Amino acid sequence: MRIYIAGHRGMVGGAILRRLQARKVAGAAIDLITRTHAELDLTDQRQVADFMAAEKPDAVILAAAKVGGIHANNTYPADFIYENLMIECNVIHQAFANGVTRLLQLGSSCIYPKAVPQPMKEDALLTGTLEPTNEPYAIAKIAGIKLCESYNRQHGTDYRSVMPTNLYGPGDNFHPENSHVLPALIRRFHEAAQQGLEEVVIWGSGKPRREFLHVDDMAEASLFVLDLDKATYAANTDPMLSHINVGTGSDVSIMELAQMVAKVTGFQGRISNDPSKPDGTMRKLMDVSRLAEMGWTASIGLEQGIKETYDWFLINQDNFRG
Ligand SMILES: NC(=O)C1=CN([C@@H]2O[C@H](COP(=O)(O)OP(=O)(O)OC[C@H]3O[C@@H](n4cnc5c(N)ncnc54)[C@H](OP(=O)(O)O)[C@@H]3O)[C@@H](O)[C@H]2O)C=CC1
Ligand SMILES: C[C@H]1O[C@H](OP(=O)(O)OP(=O)(O)OC[C@H]2O[C@@H](n3cnc4c(=O)[nH]c(N)nc43)[C@H](O)[C@@H]2O)[C@@H](O)[C@@H](O)C1=O
């Protein structure tokens, strides 16, 4: 089987690639196809069409996207909606046009309305107003789900969607402004501890709650869903509500998270808030029972996951200067 992993150098794509490489070493009859962003710009329709026609993968894992935290989403809305729509349309359509039978794409928990009962079930989709700070990205991710469902209904393809909660781990983006909260705090608390600072400022009130899933769990869940036989997947989803939430089922406040990061990095000073920065959605805990009923649950706890991620950051921190 020839599997194309789009976004293989990213945090999730890299974790998925490592698992598939391990399967290949163990004897699985798979060939892994990858291309860097420089080699293949997935927003370019002609490049994607030529690539898919030449490589003709049997399966595609779409883990490539324009990704960022609340500040990046709020600052570059046109980039987030345009690039993600183009990547999804090009990869999903050209997969179909070149006979790809199975595809897995990654959405996001931000697809759900900002004020729905928690934890959020898959059927909460499209029942209310989205969170403004990441609405463009969320619209693109919802379109990704509907693209897969529409090709399945019209052409009999088997294109699947998983909706990850906030992810973290090795290979994350530690940019001080454009990253997600957990890598941003790991870097900030580490640098404060190294410099002996007495205070670290976190964005917003610290009151919002977030669910954090380690990327290794996400990679396992992705392959679990991709490997499901078609009958099992169909029996547990609806053709027009086909996405599957992936998370831990528990959340912490941003202030609690900051205190966990302070402990892991050895920072002992004061934690203050910057109310001029947006809180975003106050809570987006996902109901993960659909996937649990299919046989998968997360296994990496947050404190252990933060420790592992910090160790990885320490080894790789020279790559994140600036
Ligand atoms: N991280 C998180 O907290 C969450 C992530 N997700 C989803 O998971 C998936 C993976 O995210 P994550 O691994 O964190 O993101 P990363 O930013 O780590 O990886 C994304 C990858 O996509 C590549 N890419 C981006 N644009 C293009 C393009 N136009 N052509 C080719 N390649 C491109 C990037 O390459 P390069 O860097 O060279 O541009 C990068 O390798 C995404 O779909 C994301 O929306 C969902 C929920 C939470
Ligand atoms: C995965 C998910 O990720 C994004 O949504 P988000 O969860 O709101 O994003 P975030 O991780 O950046 O922020 C979470 C919370 O954390 C607080 N916060 C404190 N201090 C820092 C800080 O230093 N950096 C950041 N980024 N946030 C901080 C911040 O104020 C907010 O309350 C979207 O991409 C969305 O589309 C999406 O898919």
TrEMBL record:
Residues annotated as binding substrate: R188, W203, R210, D279
Enzyme superclass (EC): oxidoreductase
Domain of life: Bacteria
Signal peptide as annotated in the record: none
Alphabetized Pfam families for the sequence: Epimerase (PF01370)
Catalytic site positions: Y137 (proton donor/acceptor)
InterPro entries per record: Epimerase_deHydtase (IPR001509), GDP_fucose/colitose_synth (IPR028614), NAD(P)-bd_dom_sf (IPR036291)
Site (Important for catalytic activity): S108, C110
Pathway annotation from the record: Nucleotide-sugar biosynthesis; GDP-L-fucose biosynthesis via de novo pathway; GDP-L-fucose from GDP-alpha-D-mannose: step 2/2
Entry binding sites for NADP(+): 7-13, 106-109, 141, 164-167, 180
Listed GO MF terms: GDP-L-fucose synthase activity; isomerase activity; NADP+ binding
Alphabetized UniProt keyword annotations: Isomerase, Multifunctional enzyme, NADP, Oxidoreductase
GO biological process, one term: 'de novo' GDP-L-fucose biosynthetic process
Domain called NAD-dependent epimerase/dehydratase: residue spans: 3-228
Keyword Isomerase carried by entry: yes
EC numbers on record: 1.1.1.271
Catalyzed chemical reaction(s): GDP-beta-L-fucose + NADP(+) = GDP-4-dehydro-alpha-D-rhamnose + NADPH + H(+)
Functional summary from the UniProt entry: Catalyzes the two-step NADP-dependent conversion of GDP-4-dehydro-6-deoxy-D-mannose to GDP-fucose, involving an epimerase and a reductase reaction.
Family (UniProt): Belongs to the NAD(P)-dependent epimerase/dehydratase family. Fucose synthase subfamily.
Protein name: GDP-L-fucose synthase
Species this chain originates from: Thalassovita mangrovi
Gene name tied to this protein: fcl
